What we know:
17 helices
Amino acid sequence: MRILHYFLGFHRQGGLNRYAADLAVAQTAANDEVFALYPGGSIIPRRCAVIKKRSIKNGVQCFELLAGAPVPLLEGIRDPEMILSQSHMLSTNAVHRFYNQVKPDVLHIHTWMGFPAELLPEWKSRGVKVVFSTHDYFGLCPKVNRLLENGNVCPGATDERCSCCNRNAPRKLYLVLRNVEFLIRLKKLLLPLIHIARRRAAVKSPEDMQNITVKPYHRLLEYYTKLLTQCDKIHFNSFITEKVYHSILPTLSGKVIPITHGNIADHRENHNAAGKILRFGFIGSAAPYKGLPLLMKVLDKLSHEGQKKWQLDIWGCEGTNQDNVCYHGLFQPAQEPEILLQMDLLVFPSIWDETFGFVVEEALSCGVSVLCSDRAGAQILVDPNWIFHGANGLYQKLQQILRDPQVLRQNHQEICKGKYFITMAEHVRTISEFYSIG
């Protein structure tokens, strides 16, 4: 089978790219012929988009899209015209030429950011099967996560809401330069300049906030809705994403298939049993929607009630250490199994419609119990007894564990007996079957 994956590139981080890159490499190992197309930035002005052949990475032939639509990541879209403009489109000749280079049986799209829509009608007429994986909500929400500025879940995209949420989004030039591959590799060195540029782009006065120009974001959402409906199949990576996408486009045809990545291995027998002090862990961003403030509030309440036989280790963000709480900052992916094996319980307290959450699967592969929010897609891998709803649900579950730590040991034994994670080889077979059906 010849498969073309569209994602943000091997050079980018994040769960979406990790999955797409690992899937592409694993499919190559399974004797499929695999290609990758990713959006790049360009400092050379061009009249229209072009696709350039790049090097082979881990057996995958790569192509870079230059001068295409901007890639906003989580920063939003200042003006819908940035995406809808004709100036970044591929020419008909470019579409034909790229097809002749790749001739795919399947086009597997992992995000709509920067995607060259001109490919779809031409390639579908040639019998290419189009599959979309729901790793994010871009296309339903210009800022990806469907959250309002106050942290609440957006009740639905409107011109007014989107204009408000995206008013501080960066300008097109910033997005173009930020997507240049060699600049991405220098990201740490450039961070101070990036922060200065972002501050200058921000709204500075209350008057500005009261006089927001309402822009036609509905046109942008209609554009992405059209692309979604042109897909032959939707790969929902969780029941959460299936619910969200179907709430807006109920006729989408697809299947829920949990995802994985290539570095998950079985470490379950290496896990140490719980001691007198329970070792709770959190891995992720300090952004409120990830749920860390909620977890801290619940643990503080338990501590004031006399439940103090716990320690919380926080990885992935910075903060001030306090009683029972220790921040460890960023870490390398290779360190993650070692970090997880020191935990008795990973808490995944997400308060938004988290599309999946690899850390849940990674913890289970280490034999670590996971207390998972019912807003997280990765709950599909977790025993229902270890899924909670809201602050009160998290409080009750943690209170129960602190009163009877034996439940952690019992759960560890159940995790070691059962099938709580997915290997990439298994996932490749499942996805291949998904491509072939219908």
